Amino acid sequence: MAEPVHPTAVVDPGARIHPAARIGAFSIVGAEATIGADVEVGHHCVLGGRPQDLKFKEGTPSGVRIGAGTVLREYVTIHRATRADGWTDVGEGCLIMAMSHIAHDCKVGQGAIIINYAGITGHCEIGERATIGGLTGMVPFTRIGAYAYVGGVSKVTADVPPYMLVDGIPAVAHGINVVGLRRAGMPAPERRVLQDAYRLLYRSGLTPQRALERIRSELPTLPPVVRLVEFVAAARHGVCGAARRGADETGDVTRTPESEPV
């Protein structure tokens, strides 16, 4: 049976470590850390590091919280919050792949997947079961809605509504994340209604406010539709735009989720 604390690990006496936790080789555990039962600390991750924010005041009491069942792979960095008693939160059951970065004051919902080399800057929010593609960057304070899918090497400069599939530089909406919603068990009738909501929001030529009015008045009041409307209505910096019909940002013809069966 492996030792609970590897001989090469450096653990501060002030750290609170459950007897059923395991501390791996070359890990460094600081005095303020709390590590619960069945948690395994591997090598070469940095959790709770000093925020990369020039306004941060040294000594500010803040931290990082990681939910049960979340996996952090090699060289992941997650920085603590900038405000006193604040937290950078990663929910339960997430997968944060190697070399990804989650900056200060971010909130990551349960079941989210962040793929290799993604850069999540300060104060961003990622909804439950959302996926962020590899090498993607997000500007500060942007939000990714629940069950959204952001394609790899994208640049997210505005909020991404729930259930959307976006891609590009800047990231634009190509349709509903049909595959992800099928995998999540969303019934086909709800997926069809979300397709209708997508067309009103992105293909009708209406302003977002007018599109929301039509969604509210014309579509069934299903929970996913309510979530979509509330997210867009709360967007402080706008939502991502629409892809040009039938073409990606380089002009190449693409098959978008609109053409896929729901």
Structural write-up:
This protein has helices spanning 178-183, 188-202, 208-218, 223-233; strands at residues 10-11, 16-17, 22-23, 28-29, 34-35, 40-41, 46-49, 63-66, 71-72, 77-79, 87-90, 95-96, 101-102, 107-108, 113-114, 119-120, 125-126, 131-132, 137-138, 143-144, 149-150, 155-156, 164-167, 172-176. With 262 residues, it is an alpha/beta fold.
Helix count equals: 4
Strand content: 15-25%
Order of helices and strands: EEEEEEEEEEEEEEEEEEEEEEEEHHHH
Q: What's the story with the biggest beta sheet? A: 7 strands, mixed
Quaternary structure of the protein: single chain
Q: Categorize the overall geometry.
A: elongated
Terminal CA distance reads 49 Å
**Number of DSSP strands?**
24
Output the strand order for the largest sheet. Answer: 9-12-15-18-21-23-24
Helix content: 10-25%
> Any idea what the radius of gyration is?
20 Å
* Average of the residue pLDDT scores: 92
The assigned structural class equals alpha/beta
Which stretches of 5+ consecutive residues score pLDDT under 50? Answer: 247-259
